[in-house]
Design goal:
This protein has about 725 residues and is of the alpha+beta class. The chain has three domains: about 150 residues, Ubiquitin-like (UB roll) (Roll); about 400 residues, 2-Layer Sandwich (Creatine Kinase, Chain A, domain 2), CATH 3.30.590; about 130 residues, Up-down Bundle (Four Helix Bundle (Hemerythrin (Met), subunit A)). The strands form four sheets. Strands 9, 10, 11, 12, 13, 14, 15, 18 and 19 form a nine-stranded mixed β-sheet that branches. Strand 7 and strand 8 form a beta hairpin. Helix 21 packs antiparallel against helix 22. The two termini are about 25 Å apart. About 0% of the residues have low confidence. It binds adenosine-5'-diphosphate and magnesium ion. The site of magnesium ion (MG) has 3 residues, from loops.
């Protein structure tokens, strides 16, 4: 009997909710208390420093050294007042996580003691010896210089007594080695391009912001059960496990009452979020058992992304206080829903107008249609790239699987918006009658007063219009949203620029501006109609239809990354100033390498579990059966003995078959790995892992799951799905 499994089940079942320290104050009192926000800046900085810093943040200006010294001094005093003793530059390397190296606020005082020290130089720029971060060959290890530099648009915060300064991370020669640098560049590009187009409608617009509201899905597993599953510990997902008799078919978990242990965890997490200025707002059960979601109020994209990364590490920490482990993997359990991180994305002007929201007047609606059509065109043109931005070794299990978007990017618009675009497309005249010149209200028959019903939801679409924003649902739960946000914002920026060029040109040729806009919008809608699909994205017919429409239907993750290096992508990123070709090449190397490593680890863990856990357990049970058969044959004779022993004999044979197949497939898998490891090109290696190693893992799993159904429950060594998913 497997002690570990039963001990862990017992331990997990006995747990009570952990008591949460609820602050005595109301939320507005402690909200953001661990953030060096404007209120703290005002309190701790000299008045002229405060004014100059706010000006630099708002108008994207560089900081002078003198200013940095003054800011650093105030920031240090605030941090020390809050009990911080260390500081770190906090950055986002290409590993889908965050990195930090802590230094204490001390320096020699020249008298054998120390002083608390933190200069502008330390605040603004550092040179972490970061040679072991993935860089795709940009920095060879002996020239291990990378710089981290403060991103003043994201406020510093304190976590566990350490002042964290959000920074970008770039190489000695200026290439970005992180997610934040290109994200800031993409946001800058979309600001410029969208402002240009928004000014067609309101010349007063100065800036356009990109907004992101992510919805973080996750699973919780009791930590004792987690510890008894080496696959969860090492890879974040179950590499084996037969479906439990009950899973999500009753659909009784979604929006159901939150279990009390989980509720305590959520409350604790929300309090931590609020102290750190993360506007956590919504929490609920998700569709699968033990699956949940947390969503904040949306924020400017760079800040929202910092907050998501911070949240993911907070979740891990807070969960442990509650004897849970958080699974952020996109597909921790086969056969039930996986976890995504819907990226609700929109653009809005500094005048407070959301550009994907229909307005009250025809002119506002022309602006709305203009922006929607440009997003359509960008997503259509770069649909292969969009997919490349969200795919990973972990998210590949989710796309196309249970209740997840297919591995094809299409756009859902809903019946009303579809009808409007259809009519617009059909119309052949560019004649526009202007009514009442001073109000510029347009009498455009094609653009009626719009009321878009945002309840028109299609859960099968990877990219859906939802009333005043787009919801990019294909993003994975463990991903850094920046990857998706870089691709999307850059592609839309590039598209808006070419739109503005075309309109300017038509106007220069004497066309009325509104007519020029309408003409261009119509062209975009016509040209990108292939991306629009409101039907069932899960159906087989859609896959065929999408291929016919010329959309990217590639299903192999390593090949999807090729989209980053296609000429139209390279040119788009060059025009928007987001990535150079060298950066794109280096980053793809990292992606392929990460892909290989993840599958390699999974494959090793599976081999180990199969040979050292599963086969011994199955053998033990098989020998019990053999023993039984032997005794039957001693007691009974002839046909009677055969009849009584038949069932057991069958099981013995079946188990022998499964075990033999498992052993030989594990050998094949080791062999496939060995061959793949000899390949030197990262892309080819990743393809080998995808094509040759991965399918064998599926085969092995199939036979293990069959054995799980046969072997005595008392002997099975690993917690089963019904335990992992239903004990809490
Ligand atoms: P649902 O699960 O129905 O999609 P949620 O309320 O869980 O809705 O999540 C919606 C998310 O979208 C929230 O994070 C919300 O702040 C965000 N959101 C709402 N409006 C916008 C917008 N204009 N731009 C970006 N995000 C938005
Ligand atoms: Mg949603």
């Amino acid at each position: 009997m497997s002690d570990l499994r039963f001990k862990s089940v017992e331990e997990a079942s006995a747990r009570k909710p952990v008591k949460v320290n609820i602050p005595a104050d109301r939320v507005e009192k402690y909200y953001g208390e661990m953030v060096f926000n404007r209120q703290k800046m005002f309190e701790y900085l000299p008045k002229d420093t405060y004014t100059a810093l706010v000006d630099a943040i708002d108008n994207k200006k560089p900081l002078s050294r003198k200013l940095a010294d003054s800011v650093a001094d105030g920031m240090k005093r605030w941090a020390i007042d809050c009990g911080a003793r260390h500081y770190t530059h906090w950055f986002h390397p290409l590993t889908d996580g965050t990195a930090e190296k802590h230094d204490a606020f001390i320096d020699h005082d020249g008298k054998g003691g120390v002083v608390e020290e933190f200069s502008g130089k330390l605040l603004v720029q550092q040179e972490p010896d970061a040679s072991s971060f993935p860089n795709g060959g940009i920095r060879n290890t002996f020239e291990a210089r990378g710089y981290s530099a403060w991103d003043i648009s994201s406020p510093a915060f304190i976590i566990d007594g350490t002042l964290c300064i959000p920074t970008i991370f770039i190489s000695y020669t200026g290439e970005s080695l992180d997610y934040k640098t290109p994200l800031l560049k993409a946001l800058n590009a979309v600001d410029k391009a969208a402002t240009r187009v928004a000014r067609f409608f309101d010349p007063e617009v100065q800036h356009v912001n990109s907004y992101l509201g992510w919805e973080q899905e996750y699973f919780l597993v009791d930590e004792a059960l987690y510890a008894a599953r080496p696959d969860l510990v090492m890879t974040g997902r179950t590499l084996m496990g037969h479906e439990s008799a009950k899973n999500q078919q009753l659909e009784d978990h979604y929006f159901g009452a939150i279990p009390s242990r989980v509720e305590a965890f959520m409350l604790d997490l929300e309090i931590e979020c609020h102290k750190l200025g993360i506007p956590a707002k919504t929490r609920h059960n998700e569709v699968a058992p033990n699956q949940f979601e947390l969503a904040p109020i949306y924020e400017e994209t760079n800040l929202a992304n910092d907050h998501n990364l911070l949240l993911m590490s907070l979740m891990n920490e807070v969960a442990r206080r509650h004897n849970f482990r958080v699974l952020l993997h996109e597909k921790p359990f086969a056969g039930i829903n996986g976890s995504g991180k819907h990226n609700n994305w929109s653009l809005g002007t500094d005048k407070g107008v959301l550009l994907f929201a229909p307005g009250k007047t025809p002119a506002q609606n022309l602006q709305f249609i203009t922006f929607v059509a440009n997003v359509m065109a960008a997503v259509h043109k770069h649909n292969g790239l969009m997919k490349a931005t969200i795919i990973s070794a972990t998210n590949q299990h989710r796309l196309g699987a249970n209740e997840a978007p297919p591995a094809i990017i299409s756009m859902f618009l809903g019946s009303q918006l579809s009808r409007i675009l259809d009519e617009l497309e059909k119309e052949t005249t560019d004649e526009i009658v202007l009514e009442g010149k001073e109000k510029m209200s347009l009498e455009i028959s094609q653009i009626p007063t719009l009321s878009i019903d945002n309840t028109d939801r299609n859960r099968t679409s990877p990219f859906a219009f939802t009333g005043n924003r787009f919801e990019y649902r294909a993003v994975g739960s463990s991903a850094n949203c920046a990857a998706a946000m870089i691709g999307l914002n850059a592609a839309v920026a590039d598209q808006l620029n070419s739109f503005a060029d075309a309109v300017d040109k038509a106007v220069a040729e004497g066309k009325e501006r509104e007519a020029a806009i309408l003409g261009e919008v119509r062209r975009l809608v016509r040209e990108s109609r292939a991306i629009h699909f409101d039907g069932n994205g899960y159906s087989e017919e859609w896959k065929k239809e999408a291929a016919r429409r010329g959309l990217d239907v590639e299903t192999s993750a390593p090949l999807m990354y090729d989209a980053y290096q296609r000429p139209e992508t390279v040119e788009m990123f060059a025009r928007t100033g987001v990535f150079t070709q060298k950066e794109l090449e280096a980053r793809n190397e990292v992606k392929w390498e990460m892909y290989t490593k993840k599958i390699q680890i999974e494959s090793r863990v599976l081999g180990d579990l199969a040979i050292n856990h599963v086969i011994p357990a199955a053998t033990r049970y098989q020998s019990l059966l053999l023993d039984n058969v032997y005794k039957i044959k001693q007691l009974f004779k002839g046909d009677k003995a055969d009849k009584i022993a038949r069932q057991d004999m069958n099981s013995i044979e079946q188990m022998a078959d499964h075990m033999a197949t498992i052993k030989s497939t594990v050998e094949q898998m080791v062999d496939a790995r060995r061959k793949a490891n000899r390949l030197t090109d990262e892309r080819t290696k990743a393809i080998a892992y995808h094509d040759e190693v991965f399918p064998l893992m599926e085969d092995i799993r199939y036979h293990i799951d069959k054995l799980e159904l046969m072997v005595d429950n008392e002997i099975w060594p690993l917690p089963k799905y019904r335990e992992l998913l239903f004990i809490r």
